[in-house]
Fold this sequence. Notes:
eleven-stranded mixed beta sheet; two-stranded antiparallel sheet
Amino acid sequence: MIIYCFKIGVQINPKHIFKFEKKATVIGLVGHISSILFGIVVFIIVQRSSSLKSEVSGVLRMIVLDALTAFSSISRLLSEINILNSEIGRVALSASMVSDASSWILFFLVRNSVKNVYQASFIPAVAMVVTVCYFISLFFLLRPLVIWISNRNPRGKPMTEGNFLLIMFILLFIGFSAQSVGQPSFIVAFWFGLILPDGPPLGSVLVERIDTIGSTLIIPAYCTISGMRTIVPPLSSQDACIVAVLLAGQIGKFAGTILPSLHFEIELWDSIALSLIMCCKGLIDLALYTLLFDSKDIGVLSFTLGIYTMVGVTGFATLVIYYIYDPSKKYKNYIRKSIKGSQQDLEFKVLVCVHNEENVHPLINLLQVSGPSKATPLSVFVLHLMELSGRAAPILTKNENTDKSHPNGDSSSQQINNVFDQFQQHNKGSVSLECFTTIAPFSSMHNDVCYIAMNTKCHVVIMPFHKQWSINGNVEISNASIRTLNQKVLSKSPCSVGVLIDRSQTSSKPLVFYENSLCEIAMIFLGGADDQDALAFSFKMAQHPNIRLTVFWVRVNMHHIQRNMKNPYIDVMEHIKYNPNLKGKVNFKEEIVEDGIGTTHVIRTMEGHFNLVIVGRHHIADSRCTLGLTEWCELPELGLIGNLLTSDFTFSVLVVQQQPFNLDI
């Protein structure tokens, strides 16, 4: 428990403890207080009925313990059901931290103050002073020592075994010394981890090293041993009374959470989900029950019933939360934006997502060829996506000033923002820029992408492909987590989505940034809403003075053409007619094929002639143009043609999807 609680403390940024929103503070406090009040009221009623004769003091302690909503338990629960960085998840994390802090302050002050009054001596007061001095020494002596040990490692290099073992020795010394001053060792370990820097480089290394042995061996063994210490009590009225008191505390927690949630205009089902989350328990609660049992403050009966109640309530609440709360449901009532629909708006709004510095220049090239001008301004929103490592709580922040430090603790966001600032300065007056940073697990990172896209009313989200190629054409990086993220964004996004497959490193005709070289772009049209959106994006690019667009209409013989399919040649002629900037810059080619083999042949003729090829993800249903390609589709998130374009070609590819009204695609 010392190691586990130290890891939890390291993952928490202490600055966030003092940055609670009013909503989270009220929900956390009201839920905590109402749980205690409900439990005490039911306890008094039960005691007066003379059904509860023994373990009175133990039940009172359990009422206070039952009101606790441990931050670490809520963080792990939210992470397991992939809603850690959802709107309700963020409120639950902040509210649980308020409840956690309230519990420890109540425990420390009230416990020692009551002892001082009953003993009529200054011994408890002296113990409080000693404890405060002990924590001061941790902050000013051992904290700088651990940071100094961490800084001895070369930047970018893993922590040496010697330095890691030295930090573990300091941790165990803290656990031993905490017992000497009368404090629980695992609680002191938590506070010591709290005052250390979270995130990389120190927090990430410690969490990774400790989690390997803690989560796979020590913690499961601890839970098993705790379960073996319980007994199956015989059914009696006293057992029912204890369970009734504990359930009353949970009902109080539920009621004390849902009422202020509704007051702050959180939707009913979201409020129910939040209330159930706040009722859940975890390893910290188990450890506190064990601590009370070991100190003889509660008996084996109370300990057993407390564990059973905790497991039952948490299991039931988790299942209900999983089925009633979906962060993406708010997008279903949102008026979805699209690239084709942007023609009616004054600005074309694009959200570009960046994982690392290698993604920056391909994305800026794509924005540059989108033709930003004063007549057609471009609003760019940059979201730097970072995996949650060494932290317990996700972070989503707007980077107001690039001169300020970023929450990731290194200079990567700074450098990314600087390059996009240069892009804005190059297109001064025609490009507006806002930068964001999110630190979240890949499993739920799509929530932040969709949240920013909806709040900024973007027309399209551009996601980098999960593979990167080296100069010699070999796959250099392939990240399965990024692929899963792209799939979730495609299925949940409130607007159009584009997946950019950058092959400029291997292309003989790379996109040139800020230069006047001619850029050749091709658009493959087979029919369907996604191809219509891709065609609209192509027309925006064709307005750039250095862009030349070729639209390939791939179709079967006339007797196979569906009557309800609009001829793209009409769209091309209409755009050229009403936009003089397109005259002489758009070519139209019809390619007649019999099946997917013919389509593949047409695509192969494009090799070496184009910088970028744009295609829709989905096409008209049962098209003969894709006949036979389904069996070879390894990347369904790109569609049949998009999957084909990622094989052996050297041009870059942009796969576009127009978000349908039914998000479950």
